[in-house]
Amino acid sequence: MTTPFQIADRPIGSEHPPFIIAEMSGNHNQSLNRALEIVDAAADSGAHALKIQTYTPDTMTLDISEGDFFISDDSTPWKGTSLYDLYKVAMTTWEWHAPIMERARERGLICFSSPFDATAVDFLEELDVPAYKIASFENADIPLIRKVAATGKPIILSTGMATLAELDETVRTLREFGCEQFVLLKCTSTYPATPENSNVLTVPHMQELFGCQVGLSDHTLGVGAAVAAVAHGATVVEKHFTLDRAEGGVDSTFSLEPEEMRQLVIETERAWQSLGCVRYGPGEAEKPSMRFRRSLYIAQDMKAGDVLTEENLRSVRPGMGLAPKYLDHLLGRRVKDHVVAGTPMSWELLG
Length: 351
Description:
Layout: E1 5-7, E2 10-12, E3 19-23, H1 32-45, E4 49-54, H2 57-60, H3 83-90, H4 94-106, E5 110-115, H5 118-126, E6 132-134, H6 142-149, E7 155-158, H7 164-176, E8 182-187, H8 202-210, E9 213-218, H9 224-231, E10 236-240, H10 258-275, E11 295-298, E12 313-316, H11 327-330
Parallel strand pairs: 3-4, 3-10, 4-5, 6-7, 7-8, 8-9, 9-10
Antiparallel strand pairs: 1-2, 11-12
Helix pairs in contact: 1-4, 1-10, 6-7, 9-10
């Protein structure tokens, strides 16, 4: 049984609708005004939180444009640029953090960030963020995880690429440094990801192994994988978010637009509502429908002593007579009194 907890005033757990995070990442396209528009659009879509990222190019990599530091992989949307130039374009300027977080508070959104090194954690502590996110590429950075865990804030950690042994070490580190309020997000670190490599069945397995809340960091297109994850117990869903994919941006190709985010919020909550509990038999809402089951009715006027046959005793709707399973037992029996067509069959009619 996983223990629920809160991020700011929002409860996280299976007894509550899934916590939906809109990830801005670099979709601000180097514009604070666009970043603030993304905040407003996330709030209007019904998302519960907005997440940003805290780093500089120099805290992420070296200013080298060749060899290991140049992206030539055809499978990524960032082919043809250096790591340094990518992070220079994608970074959220640190001076923007305060106005972004203030706008989020005004719009009722919980706002927090992914720090990528110790200086980012110190900066975010000055802003008193309510939680932290550890990105997949940092989930094995034990020194960073120790520092974040020591803040005492809730942590959401993406598990992309991590082996079971690495995750075990990470979770042990979180707990050793005092963090029990954390969520592991099943994540596939491809951009975009496909439904086929999402493997959402890992969600309940991870819950059982680590005894914690588990969610999904989803890079697929659409909302299907997220809905499936919620159906398997995910309590948090994170999706990259943009105003318009056609306007471009470092993450735009696998980001949701506002109407899609609205559908994500609606459909994941519906999936959560549909889980219910294990039960059989008619629920309270179904009881009025019981009358539309089939049952046995007298189909022709009958006189006292007449024999029940397949012509005068039929299985029809509604369901106010004896169940159809008794038909063979009743055929050949006699009625004791005059009976009109449309009378529900009962044992009292027999002679």
